[in-house]
Write a structure and sequence with these properties.
The complex is a heterodimer.
Chain A: E1 17-23, E2 30-37, H1 41-52, E3 60-65, H2 77-81
Antiparallel strand pairs in A: 1-2, 1-3
Chain B: H1 8-22, H2 35-54, H3 56-60, H4 69-94, H5 100-108, H6 125-146, H7 152-180, H8 184-203, H9 215-220, H10 228-245, E1 256-258, E2 263-265, H11 271-281, H12 285-298, H13 300-316
Helix pairs in contact in B: 2-4, 4-7, 6-7, 6-8, 6-10
The chains are: A alpha+beta, B mainly alpha.
């Protein structure tokens, strides 16, 4: 639920926005959960805990200033990701192997 | 919005946008979207967020008077959840380019609307049970569908909310079932609460399809996926059996099962009352806003202190700048 990354805050007296990432269990990736407003990193973590970890389903939290996130632009989605589209040889299905052999 | 007056570039964008909607794709914050889509989402999502926040008030009213420690813990946790739900949706609304303070100002100034249901008073402990059973039950019917809304941040907030909301309904229904199996006075109390809350709960789904000015856009853009009347019917069908199970009577003499449609037919909703309440003249509108403003004002020193502390840390160089 990231606000557009490079936009400044809307009101000057509004606390900065932080994006919140939660890890549901040991070994799992951190996933974006939402955002909170807070005046400093410590309160950002505490607010994130109160908003996104009320039920003990979180073992780790990250908070990141929203303004620090650089996102790819949807308008350039094509040119940006296209180069990966014509490389079928990066997938295992591209390769023919003798019948009846377990390759992996 | 493929109105002929649009400049060619926008018309192309609009056509591409409609195609994405038709293909069931999810729209994300930085994607191009018609201004009206953005506007309708801000309106609907901010009303939803405000409803969660104002919804804390009728129940908060009973936290200090809950009949046991167990009930008190449960109610406290539920009201905290409502605050959390408000914050999930505010944060999703902000992705549309509107500031949190702007949204809060709209609520506190009385400019913003919120669900009409929270302008009714909670007169007895039974009302707390009924809110969980009816009001959260109705909200679940709505939100389960909104979890598939076309706007990604809104849909994801709804998924999160739906996971938590089932506890709300069950804690309410448990209170209701306990009272319904209790003394004659307790039974009378809970039946009275059913009688007072049934019709306002049906109004929660919004105007009937014929009179719902925003539904067309919202359905076309797959923000909503079912009409107000369809969702209302789903709620009635679900709730009748739950009422029968605890021997409570829903206050509608016209309520009857229609074997042909497979649905429970219900009587006429008093839309004049709905309009009155939504336009600020329900039993508790002024009280709710006054309570919300007082809470905001009384919290000012906390916000000031946190801001001053963060500033001090920054000056000392002990905290990274945000």
């Amino acid at each position: 639920m990231a606000a557009a990354a490079n936009e400044p805050d809307h009101a000057s007296d509004q606390w900065p926005l932080w994006e919140v990432f939660t890890q549901a269990k040991d070994g799992a990736p951190h996933e974006h959960a939402g955002s909170v407003h807070a005046p400093d990193p410590e309160l950002a973590l505490q607010n994130a805990r109160d908003v996104y970890a009320r039920r003990g389903q979180v073992v780790s939290l990250w908070v990141v200033p929203s303004s620090a996130i650089i996102a790819s632009s949807p308008g350039e989605q094509g040119p940006f990701f296209d180069p990966a589209d014509d490389k079928p040889y990066r997938h295992p299905q591209f390769y023919r192997t003798p019948r009846g052999v377990r390759v992996y | 919005m493929s109105a002929p007056s649009l400049p060619p570039e926008d018309a192309a964008h609009a056509a591409a946008f409609d195609a994405r909607i038709d293909a069931g794709e999810t729209i994300e914050p930085k994607d191009w979207m018609p201004e009206r889509y953005r506007h309708q989402l801000v309106r609907m999502m901010s009303q939803h967020a405000h409803s969660e926040i104002v919804g804390m008030l009728p129940e908060g009213n009973w936290i200090t008077r809950a009949p046991s420690l167990r009930r008190k813990m449960c109610l406290l946790a539920k009201v905290q959840d409502e605050a959390g739900h408000g914050l999930y949706i505010y944060c999703a609304t902000e992705t549309l380019g509107v500031g949190r303070e702007e949204l809060i100002d709209q609520l506190l100034s009385g400019k913003a609307k919120y669900s009409s249901i929270f302008n009714y008073p909670t007169l007895t402990w039974a009302d707390i049970g009924i809110i969980g059973w009816f009001v959260d039950g109705a909200a679940i019917v709505n939100q389960t569908v909104l979890a598939k809304a076309s706007y990604g941040p809104y849909a994801r907030a709804m998924v999160r909310i739906c996971k938590e909301e089932n506890f709300h309904k069950r804690q309410g229904y448990e209170i209701v079932a306990t009272l319904a199996a209790g003394t004659p006075a307790q039974r009378a109390m809970v039946q009275d609460a059913v009688n007072r809350w049934w019709w306002p709960t049906l109004m929660m789904f919004g105007p009937s399809d014929a009179n719902s000015p925003n539904s067309g856009d919202l359905l076309r853009w797959r923000v909503k996926r079912f009409s107000n009347d369809e969702l209302r019917q789903r709620f009635v069908d679900l709730t009748v059996a739950q009422a029968q199970a605890v021997s409570l009577t829903l206050p509608d003499p016209k309520l009857r099962y229609d074997a042909e449609t497979g649905h429970w037919a219900y009587g006429d909703i008093d839309w004049a009352e709905f309009k009155r309440v939504i336009n600020g003249n329900g039993p508790c509108n002024r009280e709710r806003l006054a309570a919300r403003r007082a809470a905001h004002d009384q919290g000012a020193w906390v916000r000031d202190a946190a801001g001053a502390y963060a500033e001090k840390q920054r000056r000392r160089g002990t905290a990274p700048a945000a």
